[in-house]
Amino acid sequence: MPNLAVELQQTPGEQETPVLKVENLHTWFEIRRMGFFKAGDVRALDGVSFELYQGETVSIVGESGCGKSTLAKTILGLHRPTKGVMYFEGKDMSEFTKEDLKAYRANVGYVQQDPYGALPPFMTVRRILEEPLIINGVKDKAKRDKRIKAVLEEVKLAPVEDFLPKFPHMLSGGQQQRLVIARAMILEPKMLVADEPVSMLDASVRVEILQLLRRLQKKHNLAIIYITHDLSTVRYFSERIFTMYGAKIIEKSTTESLLDNPLHPYTQALFKATSDPDAENLKTYKEVPTGEPPSLMNPPKGCRFHPRCSKMIKGKCDQFEPPEFQVNGEQLVSCWLYEEKK
Amino acid sequence: MGKILLEVNNLKLYFKTKKGPVQAVDNVSFTLEEGKTLAIVGESGCGKTSLTKAILRLLPRNIMEYSGEILFEGVDLMKYSDEQFRKEIRWKKIAMVPQAAMNSLNPVMRIEDQITEPLFIHNRDMTKEEAVKRACEVFQIVGLPLDFMRRYPFELSGGMRQRATIAMALVTNPKLVLLDEPSSALDLLTQANLMNVLKKIKKEFGTTFIMITHDIGTASELADEVAVMYAGEMVEKCHAEYFYTDARHPYSRKLMSSVPTLREDKELVFIPGQPPSLINPPSGCRFADRCDQRFAKCSQPPEAVELEHGQQVKCWLYTEGSEVKKHA
Question: What ipTM does the predicted assembly reach?
């Protein structure tokens, strides 16, 4: 599985159009004072570019407030980008008409973080799954029923008949999350955006949900964007990993090479802070960078991590923004430390 | 063997509901040495939080049964009246950092006033200056800048608020601190930072902790001993050294193999099925339905057995004379 991404990267771009291509994406939120005077912008996304191919999972890791969820919502079309272009299957999304946008939304599934909050409490399972079909013009009731049953079986909510009349509160956390996945899958999308799909669940259920997503991906050749703050799950679930910090992607890498050799000092810090169950942990202290993530209203000049970075180069990191450097062929890192290795 | 600080024997906590009694904590027994940390892990709804509430006697009204022995420094706390317990034990000897602690601060009180409050309640003669001085001390221990004392909770970040609640628990210099999911709502780096702070407190002041968590990775940062709870019962308790590599109860084993790890590539498994309802739990082993090693005997309730490294396991696989033991 991990080789998939490498293969995909090596195949020249002419052959395969990425499902999603994002170029220099910015999403800024305006802050107004007294409702009228503009006080500044929160730059929740500040220049993000990447490509996503059919059948691969890209994990986006980072702390809260780094812009992960804004990225997800911009991709879903819930926020309008301030600047930058998104291409879905090669088509520029800024030129989409209303119908195009509707078709796009049917092609992109969304798995929310908190399943209970994402499911309407007054609708039965059948109604929840039927609604997207009605909206997207499946008029034949028998056809709808067939699709609902197929999708419920796919997410292993069986026996299907037992679940159809149930309300969300009658399901356990894991079952609710399966229902959310079923809803995301019902229109047979090409791409899924999963925003922390397992962070609210118990450890034993987490693996089950991740394996389910993985199975669905294989079967339908889905592209998945998996947003998480938990580094330990990405190993099992993704081909490529992007690290975000301060509204930018600072490191892009295949899962294997990132796990072997994280390059950016921030990724390294995240690595060191993650604890695996081990009795040795008791004896040592963790190395943690001091300080807090930067304000997105006026981010620090130069590299956004430089005030917390132990390897900061004076006069460089605090002055100039690092471009992406390519290291070891497949890792892209925005850090001045890797300048010579270019 | 150090001095035993806390000994819990056959603790039961049942809640009264319309559907029948909920056996949230059922016959839990364990001991904890002074200066050590016990991590209690388990799925949600297994009674972890109820156990801490039972120890600190923070109980709701619908109690049906609350019995057993809680020996703290050799004295049975169950014999204390509520008033006596409040005056002599709660926050004076045993303190707690509640779940989602970052949201449990009073939003309209300054941090300083909230932290000094327990001091005034337990010592009426204390002057404001003395109390503030003590608050400054704990603020430094948890690593918060002193100029944050006069701020309101909303002016602090999540990690700082969490530290403030820990400062509040430490201010009266308690022997035992109960931590209920201390780090689950925090970011990775903040979490690591907090574990460093707790480790430092443990080392420098010899405070005893009971830490409730479902994150086994984080638990390993602080725990000397690990206890696993399942459906209201404590099914295994053993030294941290052995737990991560050699857990004995089938449930603990499964739980360990469902934990994703960053550094090691392993096959992840999940536990099929769901934990039983606590209203009418199965009469035998409560894990039997989901266990792949069950056999005839599992329909009877297992007794706790002590194994060679001091592990206590509630499982028929390890009972004397059980023929299955040799295969396990």
Answer: 0.82
